[in-house]
């Protein structure tokens, strides 16, 4: 309690010690040339810039996170007053760009890579989220806000890999519930509809915290998950593997097999061993004989079969079936 009291009071003092508020943050963005067109390029410590961009920057790339479309590059301008991550409690925050500083309230925290944080207010893009001391809280993207924990991890880790235990979850009135299960993960004992009770003996109440704990864990780490399935309570022990899909990469569980699929259900990558059967540019029409119109449909229906997934594919007006073994 004493530590929390000190932290809260330090945060309050920190806020009131700042001069200029969000207007000074706007000016700092302008001075550092942190926004160009739809590219956010924030100066950070060690003469580097943190970039959010949907196109590859024309610069020496030190690090890249394809899931969140983040880059780290050298800052040739060497801006003297880089943005720092906010490590304290904040009484307020705002979306800030060159012309606006809109105070916001986050009503939905980031759930992993696929569901970014959402404010109550209308998204302003491109922009960053800061407190009144211009400490970085998030990056505003067209899909939502990338929260500071994900930014800090990207800046501090050598690579941008994430861990996966073969499930996707969401918040529900009953708790954190499994909405999709990877059929390609060996001995995947989870089922759609399972409610997550605890993770490594820690109670699970929010999908955002549970998902972050999984993503940030080490690949090959062990996880003990207690779930409620109907009237039963089960303990499932599983090992984290490398995450292949999510965020700005398609997330259908086929990514682990070497497939990538754009929002129009067109294959943008296929594994080498199957290139005689499938090609980049082929379009998926059905999965397991069910017509699909988007990647969510594909993710939903790929769980239904245990031995193989059957795809109906279109190429140059010709349609054909192909099986992917599980």
Entry summary:
This protein has 326 residues and is an alpha+beta fold. Helices cover 17% and strands 36% of the residues. It has 3 domains: 19-156, no CATH class; 163-242, PDZ domain (Pdz3 Domain); 254-325, Roll (Pdz3 Domain).
Class computed from helices, strands and strand pairing? alpha+beta
Tally of discrete structural domains: 3
List segments where confidence is low: pLDDT < 50 over at least 5 consecutive residues: 2-17
DSSP strand tally: 26
> What's the average pLDDT?
91
The first-to-last residue Cα distance is: 51 Å
Overall morphology: globular
Rounded to an integer, what's the Rg over CA atoms? Answer: 22 Å
In which range does the helix fraction lie? 10-25%
Main sheet characteristics: 6 strands, antiparallel
Description:
The strands form 7 sheets. Strands 14, 15, 16, 17, 18 and 19 form a 6-stranded antiparallel sheet that branches. The chain has a 5-stranded antiparallel sheet with strand order 1-2-3-5-4, with helices on one face. The protein has a 5-stranded antiparallel sheet with strand order 7-6-10-11-12. It is globular. It is α+β, with helices and mostly antiparallel strands and 326 residues long. It has 3 domains: 19-156, no CATH class; 163-242, Roll (Pdz3 Domain); 254-325, Pdz3 Domain, CATH 2.30.42. The protein is built from 5 helices and 26 strands.
